Amino acid sequence: MKKLIKRLAPVLLAFIFPLLLFAQPKFKYGKVSADDLAMTELASDTSAAACILYHKSTVFFENQGQPTLVQDVEKRIKLFKRSAFEEADLTFYFSDEYETITEVNAAIHLPDGEEIKLKKRDFIYADHTDGLRTLRFTFPRVEEGAILEYRYRRRDQGLATLPKFYFQEKHPVRWAEYEADIPEYYNYVSLTGANHNWAINSDETLNRTNTEGDNINVRRLHYATENQPAFVEETYGNNQLDYLPQTHFQLVSVTYPNVRERYYITSWFSLAKSLEDDLNFGRKFNNRADIKLPCETIEKLLKPGMSETEKATVAYREIGNHMNWNEVYRIMTDDRLNTCWQKSSGSSAEINMILLGVLKELDIKASPILVSLRNEGMHIQTYPIFDQFDHLMVLAELDGKEVIMDVNDPYRAPGLPRFDALNEFGWVADADAPRWISISPPKANRTVMSTISLQEDGMAKVHLRARLQGYFAQEGQGMLQEVEESNGPLFSRIMESFPEAELENRTISETEELYDPLEMELDVILPLGMANGEYMYVMPIVLPGIDETLTDAEERTMPIDLGYRWKDRYIATLKPPTGYAVEELPESQVVSSEDGKVNIKYTAAAANGEIRIIYTIDMDKAVFPAKEYVSIKALYEKALEFQETPIVLRRAKK
User: Between the CA of residue 445 and those of 295, 448, 468, what are the distances in Å?
Assistant: First the structure.
């Protein structure tokens, strides 16, 4: 799991509040209706492989030595098709230090009415990684038409957030319900603002009597939805779970009787100050002794008169070559950075902290940037919530220009964060000037020039010269390391449209610098023309610039998120077979979005017995709101039309 479980330390033991009495949930576990058991498909969605018949989360507080969050979960699932049998294998993760999962029950109800209850030995607890444990169990004798149900109780001594709950899942949900009783001591705020079609939507204050006979106010949250359709992921999406109906509550402060209110969310400035002095954060990269070894190595590689950019690039490259990422994302570390250097291995935080510390020792202004990764959640900028972050990068000021540096891929240049970190924004944890910035890397560029010599049988000899920059260059360099030539840059894209293509030759230009644009030449044979009597229809676009999957849906509910801006330019010179002349050329056109951020240009012209095609797609925006999908789809469909419209040649009459 990429996200650490970060919990609020249990420091409020001075006041032990009495256990409150709460109503039991109404769900009758083990009572399956004959109608549900006989159901063979869902009337509202006959394609559904399963249906969540019932899902409820009940949250309350108890105190047995210290305040504890208790969550009771109950779930019942109807299986219609074998493709949903994965629902019978369950794994739950929980903190070894702060959490427990107990009182687990599970049963499967077969279509003939037989009930099989899982036994205690079927529930397997095991140590995982990063301070986590797992609970696993598998339902037996799974078959179409069966109903699975389970329940458990999770206790959590960390009070920072109430357990999240999603009302929509990948299968239709007939009924989902969330209920939480919060004693008046705790001030939680909701971090979700979307309106949904709630069956129950209640936030009220009740007066309750605790076990010692005292009256106490309790905030009751009660939400439910009915007949939610299946959640379907959309192509080129990001943080899609954030758009589902859900609960997400964050603790702001705690006020016990006769005790001063204690805040757990203060300000971004206070958070940055506390991080600077944290043993596992600022006191790592601000400590020369903790980065002595990498500093000594890199200082030997520097030359007199180097600019800040040159020094930073040397450090970035050397650290990237020396350190191996252990595939773990972090924002803090309890390991010594010198030890990580000796092991040549570390988390994303440890590797980038080494870079951060080295830059500071070189008198280069640098600060940590914290981000939530793609699909781990949109950034919450309203409240200074530290637990939302997954990954640490570096913001360096190099010769008057701010550059984001994220060490990992040897072919990814400074200024290009890893793709998973392209989540629109990042928080600069600068103790003097904490701030949010836009994560907008330089535009990726790809220019391909091709010379096409067409034969009478429709086969073509194509010579391509390409220049790739930014993320396109990084991707291309990575593909060149593959054993199979078909996986190489450009040719793999050609193969998608022309599976019969043959690669005759590929030449990679040598560069002086590792991060220079990637330049290459290819010689390819592929079928571009189709003869029909005296006519030949030719497809001159050998490198399609548009992915058709973006036009599959009629509408979208979530933004299009490409990650980064890009520009693709394809220039072709087509030489027709001897005896053929142009009969018809596609119309030259330019289409653009209303804001001018998307521009698609296609021109075709014939002169001196040759045909010249220029096809350019310029995406100057990475994220498009869902409301813009219809217009963006129309542009993409026009681009697909350009890609698929043939040039018509005609054989001259003898």
Answer: 35, 10, 6
